[in-house]
């Protein structure tokens, strides 16, 4: 395992991503920020807190629960009523985007409503897409082989990203 991001670097990336979101959503009074099951939830909560401290925007946090390995085997659920997304800007957050599968199914859940726009955020983008998903906000782009993967895991009481 090779360390690619330590806790401090992750915090810096999250701060930058939150400020990029504020800049790119200027004039939009209300945002919905959702985290995908796992670390996506943690990062979405952190981004929400930073935006609330640095912007007058109203921000609603939610989570999307899905089976990352087999997304069609169980229902994809949302922690708030998806009808609230109607006409709104929704931002979906995950820790690592690789093939785009998880992000694709998360976006499909959001698109069950007529939203104003959907933006995607990932801490690490591996660039090995099988689906036509692009990340609007990326903390770090990492070139890897198909056999490698990036995992954000707890280590010594903090989160760190590793190439394995």
UniProtKB/TrEMBL annotation:
<feature type="domain" description="Phosphoribosyltransferase">
    <location>
        <begin position="5"/>
        <end position="140"/>
    </location>
</feature>
<protein>
    <submittedName>
        <fullName>Phosphoribosyltransferase</fullName>
    </submittedName>
</protein>
<dbReference type="Pfam" id="PF00156">
    <property type="entry name" value="Pribosyltran"/>
</dbReference>
<dbReference type="GO" id="GO:0016757">
    <property type="term" value="F:glycosyltransferase activity"/>
</dbReference>
<keyword id="KW-0328">Glycosyltransferase</keyword>
<dbReference type="InterPro" id="IPR000836">
    <property type="entry name" value="PRTase_dom"/>
</dbReference>
<keyword id="KW-0808">Transferase</keyword>
<dbReference type="InterPro" id="IPR029057">
    <property type="entry name" value="PRTase-like"/>
</dbReference>
<dbReference type="InterPro" id="IPR050137">
    <property type="entry name" value="PyrR_bifunctional"/>
</dbReference>
């Amino acid at each position: 395992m090779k360390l690619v991001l330590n806790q401090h670097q992750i915090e810096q990336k999250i701060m930058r991503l939150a400020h990029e979101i504020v800049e790119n959503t200027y004039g939009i009074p209300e945002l919905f920020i959702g985290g995908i099951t796992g670390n996506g939830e943690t990062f979405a909560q952190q981004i929400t807190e930073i935006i609330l401290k640095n912007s007058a925007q109203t921000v609603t946090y939610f989570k999307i629960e899905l089976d990352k390995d087999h997304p069609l085997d169980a229902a994809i659920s949302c922690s708030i009523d998806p009808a609230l997304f109607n006409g709104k800007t929704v931002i979906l957050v995950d820790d690592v985007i690789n093939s785009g599968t998880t992000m694709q199914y998360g976006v499909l859940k959001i698109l069950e409503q007529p939203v104003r726009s959907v933006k995607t955020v990932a801490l690490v983008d591996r660039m090995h897409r099988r689906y036509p998903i692009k990340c609007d906000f990326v903390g770090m782009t990492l070139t890897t082989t198909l056999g490698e993967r990036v995992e954000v895991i707890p280590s010594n009481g903090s989160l760190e990203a590793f190439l394995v």
